[in-house]
Amino acid sequence: GYSTTEPIIIMSPLSMLDPQDGLTYTLILRIILAPIASWGLSWSGYKKKSLSFSGAIAAFFVGFFTILTGYRLALTLLTFYYTSSKLTKLKSDYKKKVEADFKEGGSRDWKQVFANSFTGTVLCLVYLYLNGTTEIQLDLNNHYYTTLLLLAFMGHYACCNGDTWASELGILNKKDPILIITGSPVPRGTNGGVSPIGLMASLGGGSLIGICFVLGNFLFCSPSPTPLSPFIIFLLGANAGFFGSLVCFFFGQLRQKIMF
Known about the structure:
Blueprint: H1 19-47, H2 53-69, H3 71-89, H4 92-98, H5 110-131, H6 144-170, E1 178-179, E2 193-194, H7 196-220, H8 230-259
Antiparallel strand pairs: 1-2
Helix pairs in contact: 1-2, 2-3, 2-5, 3-6, 3-7, 5-6, 6-7, 6-8, 7-8
């Protein structure tokens, strides 16, 4: 007697479509949905003062290319945008007192939008060039370079989300933060300052992006014989959020030294 091990294939709702029909349907739907959804989100952000006028224009192009590339990537971007906007407005009256550069509602301009999304948008364009609009499962054995590209996209937004969560929640810490290099206490709102709440928030922000990517793989991707473990994807997102925010804190402290 002998035994064989059959590969486990993750099935998604879109995998039930005929491949050619599925690709045509998805492409047409995205071409219609991308500009409408991007305009709606940009206009909503502008009306709610989460975005300035220039920020709304930049957000439109970021959203357009991200949605056009894939629903999994769009879900990641929307999660980052929505949670960041909500946390920015959390206890805004208190933040106004302790932040010198506080802006009502966040009001991110085009520079801030591109600072958070330029790398992700470039990765979307590279993905479109290599794979078109096909949603490819994370699989290092069968789609090595595409998987690295997708992990880079996830890692980028996990880092951005972790850093934003750390900044918006860390400032609410009861004690003053400390500088990551010297360990000396600094006033709240100081670049490079870290706090226990901020560090936990960075881990949570990255973890949420990892969860979104796992969910997006299941809902929107074609099956693959050897998909990357959902737990590994989650861990990569969590680590990108945590360690990415530490890097941002480090450069924030350097910037503080250069300026003052």
